[in-house]
Specification:
There is one protein chain. By secondary structure, the protein is α+β, with helices and mostly antiparallel strands. The chain has helices spanning 54-67, 72-89, 93-107, 111-119, 122-133, and strands at 4-8, 13-16, 19-22, 28-32, 39-41. The protein has 2 domains: 4-43, no CATH class; 46-133. The strands form 2 sheets. It has a 3-stranded antiparallel sheet, covered by helices on one side. A two-stranded antiparallel sheet has the order 1-4. Strand 2 (13-16) and strand 3 (19-22) form a beta hairpin. Helix 3 (93-107) packs antiparallel against helix 4. The longest helix is centred in the middle third of the chain and has 18 residues, at 72-89. The termini are far apart. The relative contact order is 0.13.
Length: 134
Amino acid sequence: MSGLVLKLGPKERVLINGAVVENGDRRSRITVLTSRANILRLKDAIHPDEANTPVRRACYLAQLLLSGEVDASTLLVRLEGQIGSLADILRDPQSTEILGRASQAVAEQNAYSCLKLLRQLLPLEERLLFQKQQ
């Protein structure tokens, strides 16, 4: 049986279905066998104050879905809207594909896959914003 394999460093924290779990003093591997479990590495989490760009805002919305502490139906609509706005701006083939897959993940209510896909756009957004500032 396969599943999601989490490789955790010492004292690393992860949010699993709303519960914060902390690893012990050694590196470890955990296999999550339950499909559709809501999992977020806390070291990868975006703080609300850091959700200050379009892609970061979309990632933050997906992250909120993973936390399980918000109304999912309302947030799914907001996330789909944010992805649609990004699709209007990021029109290169790679971004279009990523955003299409992220939109499909939202339709399937798979926040983990959506977040994973959206995070791929962060370097592009950073380059575009940095380029614009120069």
